[in-house]
Amino acid sequence: MAKGKHPNSLKNLIHILPGSVGLNPRGRPKAGTTIIEYMHSMADYTVKQLAKVLRDPASTVAKLAAAHQLSKAAAGKGDEFDRVMDRTLGKPTPITPVSDLGDSGLVEVRIVKI
Q1: Which of 21, 52, 63, 109 gets the highest tally of CB atoms within 10 A of its CB?
Q2: Taking the model in full, what pTM does it have?
Q3: Domain count of the chain?
């Protein structure tokens, strides 16, 4: 039997009423926009625009969380700015101090032509 033609595979597409559209013709629906995507899209918002999003009862939880964190970062409260930067741009690569490289204190640098 061809792949996807087994009766058990077709159960998900059975029509509820004659002439109706199948139950799952396009597959699983996509998840909503994430907090990070909202942070990227609202990066150029003014404080007034962020406040408007926070007051909007139709805003999703992810959009509200992103607007709340961005408004706290804009106000300079706590470590919010660092958190926003870590979420949107990624955490910076830690730098190993020379003192942690060993007792000799010598560092070898090689230049390789690619």
Answers
A1: 63
A2: 0.51
A3: 1
